[in-house]
Amino acid sequence: MADPERPDRPEPTVEPPESVPPVSAEPPPEDPDEPRRYPSTIGGAFYLLVLGVVAVALVVVALGEWRSGIRLMGGALIFAAAVRLVLRRRDAGMLAVRHKVLDAAVLIVLGGLLIFLAGSIPDQPGGF
Question: Which letter, b or e, does each residue of 34-44 get, where b requires 16 or more Cβ atoms within 10 Å of its Cβ?
Answer without folding.
Answer: eeeeeeebbbe
